[in-house]
Design a protein that fits this description.
The complex is a heterotrimer of chains A (about 190), B (about 750) and C (about 325).
Chain A lengths: L4 E6 L8 H10 L9 E8 L6 E7 L8 H5 L5 E3 L5 E3 L9 H5 L6 E2 L6 E2 L16 H5 L5 E5 L6 H8 L15 E4 L9
Parallel strand pairs in A: 1-9
Antiparallel strand pairs in A: 1-8, 2-3, 4-5, 6-7
Chain B lengths: L43 E5 L8 E7 L3 E6 L12 H4 L1 H5 L9 E3 L8 E3 L2 H19 L4 E5 L3 H13 L4 E2 L7 H11 L4 E2 L6 E4 L10 H13 L3 E5 L5 H5 L2 E3 L6 H14 L5 H7 E2 L1 H8 L4 H8 L3 H13 L4 E4 L10 H14 L9 E2 L4 H8 L31 H4 L7 H8 L7 E5 L3 H4 L3 H10 L2 E6 L11 E4 L10 E3 L6 E4 L13 H11 L11 H8 L4 H10 L1 E3 L9 H10 L25 E2 L3 H6 L19 E6 L13 H6 L5 E3 L1 H7 L6 E5 L4 E8 L7 E5 L38 E7 L1
Parallel strand pairs in B: 6-7, 6-15, 9-10, 9-13, 10-11, 12-21, 15-16, 16-17, 22-26, 23-25
Antiparallel strand pairs in B: 1-2, 2-3, 4-5, 4-17, 8-14, 18-19, 19-20, 22-27, 24-25, 24-27
Helix pairs in contact in B: 3-19, 4-19, 5-13, 8-11, 8-12, 8-13, 11-12, 16-18
Chain C lengths: L17 H26 L8 H24 L8 H4 L6 H23 L13 H7 L3 H24 L11 H25 L7 H31 L1 H5 L8 H21 L4 H4 L2 H28 L3
Helix pairs in contact in C: 1-2, 1-6, 1-7, 1-12, 2-4, 2-7, 4-5, 4-6, 6-7, 7-8, 7-12, 10-12
Classes of the chains: A alpha+beta (about 190), B alpha/beta (about 750), C mainly alpha (about 325).
Family (chain C): Belongs to the NrfD family.
Protein name (chain C): Polysulfide reductase
Pfam families (chain C): NrfD (PF03916)
């Protein structure tokens, strides 16, 4: 069976500490001023004292139906055999159509390569070495889970089957592979 | 003299010898060095982080010959192989072009930013001559030595001792000293919290989800997510911990003591406390119970704004989960001048439910010696210490030794801020020189203007650091220390419920002319004619001395980076004691109830937990019993000004590190919408904060996550020296707004004050 | 909460800037200009005469598309690798299809211009191209039809290019290609008028010019209708789409819309029709009104591109 790599971000566990973002930058050599991954602590929302933050992981959603791949004129943005939305740097001319078309605004022009860039679940670096993505590796509170959702024994499959999750902007038909476990308002329950 | 790293040294344009004010072309900075590929010592090296004072075990990897990826060391289970943003950004410090990699001498006025590069030899000679002259004229005690606590302070303080000065200080009184001294008074030693196994956690603004302490942060999350623990947070602002809490109460700043005493009141009056535990292990209960009789929840509500019915309910819920419940005693202190009693009251709430040495409660560290005694077996090796004989005995008193009430602090890092009094007012005598290592009082001590005045007045100032910090900017000589990724250091004790050791090891070869502090202070000592007090040759010889020449042990520790021995043990937890005795047949016999409760001993005068302390009463009359005293932290027309930690920075140390500066370089000031509305302030507006000692310009962040009478800012921003190019002038400088005030008994300097706010 | 996650510049939803707006404008102008030129020729009685309008279109159309493509290429982060886009195709990408259309449109457009301008070429020291123009003459009808179809494609393509991005409710509408095509016609007519009046010194009472003038009102009315439809669609869709209507009332792009698109682009040309005939048909007024139309179309491209990208669903 083909692989279906997914990532699950548990917003109850996430503390917005940016360890993931720093690890990502280190592993992938992302230049200053641009990011493959940010976790934004948004809010607080609600009325005091019933306030809450939203811990918003901002990174490539690895859409099954990726607008960036559809619009790319040269095929530089493509879906690899592993199902991951990937970029062939030397095929990219830098028209920024993919950057504009991404509903999640997570693609950017890498100022060093001049090609489009984004999170690829550390496909070239850590996955290639059989390791977990950098963000998952360092996350202090184990808020991130990564794996093959097609494997029913994987942690991600179990989580998706047992926890309420949501994906962002599904109304656009993108079918993102980043799942989120929403914060329980007014405290944590597992 | 040893010159270990003699390399080709190519100076950047205009840098050599001449003075240069531009930080990017700062003489002695890494930018002035020719770029060269770095040699990795190994592919994955286990070491210890130094991006904050928690010092987590790490594993560092060299990628593509240069870039170091840092994760946690998986050998250390409670750390989970994890690392925070600061820890992960270590290599960003390592390769920062603004790092100082050559000794520097000041050539302009102090703080003017005019530097020239000198050799180590010149630096040592200058320092030796100046310090020895001062010693000859004014006595060794006229020189103060201060350092961030940890592996570095040992070597600097050893030099201070060899030199003959009693005046050595850590940053304790500006940071964690309060709970340390309170614990010392009550338990005779530091205590640890077992958050991970707790079922009910009461937290008084211990911001573990932003001020990350990896094992504790993970512990609290584990308790919340996997054990369904309830978390109650009392904090004036809506922090990340408050967000993750089941209940958040926006307590009035500095009134935690009232709520803690009210909790104790309910526990005692409603007979919810562990009577047997108190009988067996505690002294001073009656006096304490008498004192808190008046501390009703209704009274506490008036002081703290926390509803009485909630305090009552929480006390009952807390007791219902006893003994697997805990009141977190916090970390960074100084919310109030009543710091000492506040921390003692938090400890008292734990003692009352008898959670000491119980899962989810408080416990004492089990170092090898203690652990082996219980096991009846040498389960864990003990470390040897390098004995140095004939160290001079200082004749003078410490400068903070003016008032007996601070006696417990003298051996716990001292009252750091007394350096200012001794310098400016010759209290109790005149200080002439200050030697610092990796400490930044300009940021972390209160009343920045007074720190500047002191640094300007001293005859001689030496700073050892990795950057020209705000403090180092006022030094005469700057000694460039290697970053932790280039240093080997002594094996350190990391024992918790069972013994553990870990070690810092170099990950890459040294860059530039930097040196580790053990080497700097040994070589400086030799230059000062104190060579006989530094009998070890190098770090390797020191480590071998520690492991008592057991090379196998040495190699194991170095290879794994972190080793632990035995099973976790809490003396009063029956299941753990049973597992322990089953595993170690020669283990000490248990009590009738299957625990080691009777073997529990405390290093207090009574040998028991001292809820009230005669020792403290003798040090300061009227302070033996924990007591509420009203304090005035601000004027009626002012707002409380409080600070806190953010996950991406360490107070006063990391704000210039590229990766971290890029994440956050400004500290927008939290203001409640109604407070802001009255002053016509909107988010993003330029504002001015004025206190009794200073005034700062900042940016407003209007948010409902703060009390109306309070403003909040993250600590450590707004550096004022031009050398820290990425951090300078960004955000407000908290230390510049805080007046100089010292808390009784613990000697902490207080970090809550009143300010007025205006739109610019 | 303070920003602890770093630089947000890359997340600015406005990815494509004014250079792309100018490209969209130029492509629309090029297509509109030649469509009007050819269309009027088909409706003219004497097909042997090259009208000043057609000659103007024959110049404006290739020049506009060249300038537009230059904008496009130099907006690439790797402008010197633009050839990659010519050898790699992804037919699910509107841009790729557009490249194919432009690859055909540009040379055919130039060929057609040579035919139309065959008598003018010697005046511009381009006499050496006359034999080529004559050689192409037998294929004029075929070239004309193909170019007409391609021009409709190019005109609509610029709309499809941005309407294919489904995250932007204002862009992701069916009327956008039609709106761009019609406003391209508007721009083309205006540019052709200026070209004819200035370059070929046409009388302001020229018959073809008059015919083209007659087209302006219906074109402008359909442009307004499409705009109205666009906003209605957003309004009735609700949610993020309705939120995008805020672009009409807030920010700099609201001013661009009301002053540039409505005021200069629609109101001035419409009001000019109320002027007495002799004033209205003076050269100066005609050029001024045409300039207003062009400005309005350029403003529309800017408004749609910027406001469209500013509101993401």
């Amino acid at each position: 069976m083909s692989k279906r790599y997914v990532m699950i971000h548990d917003e109850n566990r996430c503390i917005g500490c940016q360890a993931c973002s720093v690890a990502c930058r280190s592993e992938n050599g992302t230049p200053e001023g641009v990011s493959r991954l940010q976790v934004r602590v948004e809010g607080p929302f609600g009325d005091a004292p019933h306030l809450h933050f939203k811990y918003n992981r901002v990174s490539c959603q690895q859409c099954e139906n990726a607008p960036c791949v559809t619009v790319c004129p040269t095929g530089a943005a493509y879906v690899g055999d592993d199902g991951l939305v990937t970029i062939k740097e030397d095929k990219c001319v830098g028209c920024m159509y993919c950057v504009a078309a991404c509903p999640y605004k997570v693609r950017f022009m890498n100022p060093e390569t001049k090609a489009a860039d984004k999170c690829n679940f550390c496909k070239d670096t850590r996955l290639a070495r059989g390791e977990l993505p950098a963000c998952v590796t360092v996350c202090p509170t184990d808020a991130l889970t990564f794996g093959d959702a097609n494997d029913p024994q994987s942690d991600v499959a179990k989580l998706i089957n047992t926890k309420a999750t949501y994906q962002e902007k599904t109304h656009l038909g993108t079918q993102p592979r980043v799942y989120r476990i929403p914060t329980k308002r007014g405290g944590i329950q597992s | 003299m040893i010159e270990l790293d003699r390399r080709t040294f190519i100076k950047g344009a205009g840098a050599g010898g001449a003075t240069c004010a531009l930080a990017t072309l700062l003489p002695g900075s890494l930018a002035a060095l020719e770029q060269q590929p770095l040699k990795a010592v190994g592919k994955e090296v286990a070491s210890i982080c130094e991006m904050c004072s928690t010092r987590c075990p790490i594993s560092a990897r060299v990628v593509d010959g240069k870039n170091v990826f840092i994760s946690g060391n998986k050998e250390a289970k409670s750390f989970g192989g994890k690392v925070c943003a600061r820890g992960g950004a270590g290599h960003s410090l390592l390769y920062d072009p603004q790092r100082i990699v050559n000794p520097l001498r000041r050539v302009g006025e102090r703080g003017e930013g005019q530097w020239e590069e000198i050799t180590w030899q010149q630096a040592y000679q200058t320092i030796a001559k100046n310090l020895n002259d001062i010693k000859a004229k004014h006595g060794a005690e006229a020189v103060a030595f201060s350092s961030k606590s940890g592996s570095l302070s040992g070597h600097l303080f050893h030099l201070g001792k060899a030199f003959g000065s009693p005046n050595s200080f850590t940053h304790a009184s500006t940071c964690p000293g309060g709970y340390v001294i309170a614990a010392k008074a009550m338990f005779g030693t530091k205590v640890k919290r077992d958050l991970g196994n707790s079922k009910y956690i009461i937290n008084f603004g211990h911001n573990l989800y932003e001020g990350i302490n990896m094992s504790e942060t993970r512990g609290m999350m584990k308790a919340q997510m996997e054990k369904n623990a309830k978390l109650v947070v009392f904090e004036p602002r809506f922090s990340v911990v408050a967000d993750k809490a089941d209940e958040w109460f926006a307590i009035r700043p500095g009134t935690d003591l009232a709520v803690a005493l009210a909790l104790c009141h309910v526990l005692i009056e409603d007979k919810l406390y562990d009577h047997a535990f108190i009988e067996q292990h505690v002294v001073g209960f009656e006096a304490f119970a008498e004192e808190v009789k008046a501390c009703t929840p209704e009274w506490a509500q008036g002081v703290s704004d926390v509803p009485a019915k909630d305090i009552r309910r929480i006390a009952h819920e807390y007791a219902a989960h006893a003994p697997h419940a805990v009141v977190d005693f916090g970390h960074r202190a100084t919310f109030t001048p009543e710091e000492f009693d506040m921390r003692r009251a938090l400890f008292a709430a734990n003692v009352l439910i008898g959670n000491i040495e119980r899962k989810g409660g408080l416990y004492l560290g089990k170092k090898a010696k203690t652990y082996n005694k219980f096991a009846g077996n040498k389960v864990a090796p003990t470390l040897g210490k390098p004995g140095v004989e004939g160290l001079p005995k200082p004749t003078a008193k410490r400068i903070d030794q003016v008032d007996e009430q601070y006696a417990m602090m003298w051996s716990s890092g001292g009252i750091y801020q007394t350096i200012l009094d001794a310098t400016l007012e010759a209290k109790p005598y005149q200080l002439k020189a200050w030697v610092m290592s990796r400490t930044n009082p300009m940021q972390t001590m209160t009343d920045r203007a007074r720190v500047v005045e002191s640094l300007k007045k001293l005859d001689f100032v030496v700073c050892c650091d990795v950057y020209i910090s705000e403090t180092a900017a006022y030094a005469d000589i700057i000694l460039p220390e290697s970053t932790y990724l280039e240093r080997d250091e002594e094996i350190a004790d990391k024992s918790g419920k069972n013994p553990a050791y870990y070690v810092r090891q170099r990950v890459v070869e040294t860059i530039g002319q930097t040196k580790p502090s053990w080497q700097i202070f040994k070589e400086l000592g030799e230059e000062m004619g104190l060579g006989q007090f530094f009998p070890w040759e190098n770090m390797e010889s020191l480590q071998l001395l520690q492991v008592n020449r057991d090379v196998t042990l040495w190699n194991t520790i170095k290879e794994k980076g972190y080793v632990s021995y035995g099973k976790p043990l809490m003396l009063r937890e029956p299941s753990m004691v049973a597992a322990f005795t089953a595993h170690y047949p020669e283990a000490k016999a248990t009590d009738a109830d299957g625990t080691y409760a009777s073997a529990m001993s405390f290093k207090t005068p009574s040998g028991k937990i001292e809820l009230s302390s005669d020792k403290v009463e003798k040090m300061a009359a009227g302070r033996g019993v924990i007591k509420y005293r009203p304090v005035q932290l601000k004027q009626a027309d002012e707002l409380y000004f409080i600070q806190g930690k953010v996950a991406v920075h360490t107070n006063g140390a990391t704000h210039n590190i590229p990766m971290l500066a890029n994440l956050m370089s400004d500290n927008g000031v939290w203001i409640h919408p109604l407070t802001a509305g009255k002053l016509g302030i909107s988010s993003g507006d330029k504002i001015r904060l004025s206190s009794s000692v200073g005034s700062e310009e900042g940016t407003a962040l209007v948010t409902p996550g703060i009390r109306q009478d309070t403003v909040f800012a993250y600590m450590g921003f707004g550096s004022k020296n031009k050398e820290l190019a990425r951090a300078t002038g960004k955000g407000i400088h908290c230390g510049n707004l805080l007046p100089h005030q010292t808390a009784p008994i613990c000697g902490m300097n207080i970090h809550t004050t009143g300010i007025t706010l205006a739109k610019i | 909460m303070n920003n602890t996650w770093g630089d947000m510049a890359q997340y600015d939803p406005v990815t494509w800037n004014w250079i792309i707006a100018v490209y969209l404008f130029m492509a629309g102008l090029s297509a509109g200009s030649i469509l009007i030129g050819i269309g009027l020729r088909w409706y003219s009685k004497d097909k042997s005469i090259e009208s000043a309008i057609l000659k103007a279109a024959a110049i404006i159309s290739p020049v506009a598309i060249s300038l537009g493509l230059a904008c496009l290429v130099f907006d690439l982060t790797k402008p010197f690798h633009f050839w990659l886009i010519l050898i790699n195709y992804n037919l699910s990408s509107v841009m790729s299809i557009g490249v194919l259309a432009l690859l055909a449109y540009s040379p055919i457009g130039i060929a057609y211009s040579l035919i139309v301008l065959r008598d003018e070429l010697p005046k511009w020291k381009l006499g050496f191209l006359v034999p080529l123009a004559h050689a192409l003459m037998p294929f004029r009808k075929a070239i004309e039809v193909v170019l007409f179809v391609l021009a409709i494609g190019v005109g609509a393509y610029t709309g499809f290019l941005i309407s294919a991005m489904n995250a932007y409710p204002m862009l992701n509408t069916a009327v956008l290609p039609a709106l761009f095509l019609v406003s391209g016609l508007s721009a083309g007519a205006a540019a052709n008028a200026i070209g004819a009046l200035v370059m070929f010194n046409t009388s302001s009472h020229d018959a073809t010019l008059g015919k083209m003038h007659g087209l302006e009102l219906p074109v402008m009315l359909s442009e307004m209708m499409f705009l109205f439809m666009l906003f209605c669609a957003l309004y009735f869709k609700g949610g993020a789409a309705a939120a995008a209507l805020a672009s009409l009332t807030t920010g700099v792009w609201a001013s661009v819309f009301w002053i540039g698109v409505v005021g200069i682009g629609f109101a001035i040309p419409l009001l000019s029709m109320l002027m007495p005939a002799q004033t209205r048909h003076t050269k100066g007024v005609m050029i001024a009104v045409a300039c207003c139309s062009l400005t309005g179309v350029l403003a529309l491209r800017h408004f749609v591109l910027y406001a469209g990208q500013s509101y993401i669903s």
